[in-house]
Amino acid sequence: MHPSFMDSFCFKPAGLKTLRQSAKTAFALGLGAALGLAPGGALQAQQRCQSTEYMQQLIEQNPSILERQAAIEAHTRAVLESGAAERSAAVVYTIPVVFHVVYNGTGENVPDYVIQGQLDVLNEDFRLTNADASTIVAPFASIAADSEIEFCLATVDPNGNPTTGITRTPTTRSSFSAFSDNVKSTSSGGKDAWPTDEYLNIWVCDIGFGILGYAQFPGGPAATDGVVIDYQYTGRDAWASGPLSPYALGRTATHEVGHWLNLRHIWGDGGCSADDGVSDTPASNSSTSGCPLSKNTCGSLDNVQNYMDYSYDDCLVMFTDGQAARMRATLTGGGPRASVVNNAANVCGGSVPTCDVPANPTTTIVAAPTSAQMSWDPVSGATGYELQGRKVGAAFRNVNISGTSRTFNIFKGGRTYEWQVRANCGAAGVSAYTPLQLFTMPNAREGMTDKGFALAPNPAKERVQLDLFFAEGAVQVEVLDLTGRTVLSTQFPDGRAAVALDLTALGNGSYLVRASQNGQAAMQRLLIAR
């Protein structure tokens, strides 16, 4: 524990003016860091955390925060001295979480499974069940802590309605600012917080100036309380737009939630004499980059594997006993986060609403060679559907559809297309996509009045698709060997559908496929080659 800690939080009323001036100076320095400028003006690639500078700005705008923080520190000291935060009490605190995904374009719209993966990271890291805890170096292994703090996605929203614990808000803003905090306001293109005394709000968005994340320490304004994570550093699951190495394991959120629970950086945002308020974290004179396990800056080994340092994600693996006790102090009765854990029983643990994948996706050739209909079964609770389609090899185009079918008149004969659809169930979220549906648009044939079929793929292996463009009604399909013997026969009820034939019972070679309806027939050659 560093001796300057008490002074840094101004427990004496006479120190308020001094700390206000310190906050102003530190914020000015932090602004340069947030803009990616080192003291000499050099550009930095990332600024891992902007929490300290962000809080200094809030204090500059509202100095009464200092008094609230002083009271919080007094409460923390009293709880720690009484032992009420000790984990021997076997009390596991649960914090309900809502993720607000605010996105400009699909690349920023972080998928549900990535959000779930981020929640898993928080639970593993705060319970010391993370697999990489085995890499903790020997000098710190004995103080690595299970904080007995867990997180759940909210299943009930502030209005008492079912929720997945994830909100999604499209925006026209290209990025958001840690200085204006505008992602936390609907009126500025972001998303208003859910009640911050009932939920931990985590916003996921594009944060400008290369900032990975920032959090509001206890004692700040209620309307903006929570954590902000850049979408590119959210979760640990690979997806189209992130997360980005070397911050790809979800530890940015772990770090920022640590701040939200009243932890400071382990170097105390100062030097060897600065304090982070925790007795068992060794002094350090600076943040860490990479993973220099032998780093020694203040006469003892630095705890570079601590979540409250700036090391790369694959290096950060632990909180200490002292940090766990300090975080738990915020959750005890009278603590600044106590109301949030008290609300967990009301908003967590209920049944999570689901959104089913649309069943029976079907392609119907309406009029070759230009028109086809895509259709599927309705999904219970769906408010609409999103269809993606493309010519094979081109880029997907998205179309929002209110019903369960759509006819398009944009195709060209002889080309192969594919599409998939998913349901949007409002509060229950968005389903996964159906499997890709493949069809080849037939060329209209003279004398056939658009009757006939197309085969794909040809040559085929185990399966071949027929795109039928007969009239409505049943169609008989037969596969003939070259002697004219029928080796496979089946009937399909719809003459304007995409159907499939199972070829596994047939050997390699050439065959004829014949489709007939009401005395009219079309025939094509099929090659099976495995």
Task: Explain this structure.
With 530 residues, the protein is α+β, with helices and mostly antiparallel strands. The protein has 3 domains: 5-347, Collagenase (Catalytic Domain), CATH 3.40.390; 362-438, Immunoglobulin-like (Sandwich), CATH 2.60.40; 453-528, Sandwich (Immunoglobulin-like), CATH 2.60.40.3080. The chain contains 10 helices and 21 strands. It has helices at residues 5-8, 16-34, 51-61, 64-82, 112-127, 138-141, 251-260, 321-329, 338-342, 344-347; strands at 47-49, 93-103, 149-153, 166-170, 200-205, 211-215, 227-230, 362-367, 371-375, 384-391, 397-401, 405-408, 416-424, 437-440, 453-456, 463-468, 475-480, 486-492, 498-502, 509-517, 520-528. Strands 1, 2, 3, 4, 5, 6 and 7 form a 7-stranded mixed β-sheet that branches. It has a 4-stranded antiparallel β-sheet with strand order 11-10-13-14, with no helix packed on it. It has a 4-stranded antiparallel β-sheet with strand order 18-17-20-21, with no helix packed on it. Strand 8 and strand 9 form a beta hairpin. Helix 2 packs across helix 3.
Distance between the termini: 71 Å
Q: Strand pairing plus helix content: what structural class?
A: alpha+beta
How many strand segments? 21
The CATH superfamily of the largest domain is: Collagenase (Catalytic Domain)
Helical percent range? Answer: 10-25%
Mean pLDDT: 85
- Label the overall shape: elongated
Low-confidence stretches: 1-45, 445-450
CATH architecture call of the largest domain: 3-Layer(aba) Sandwich
By DSSP (H or I, 4+ residues per run), the number of helices equals 10
Q: How many discrete structural domains? A: 3
**Rg, alpha carbons:** 30 Å
As a percent range, the share of strand residues is: 15-25%
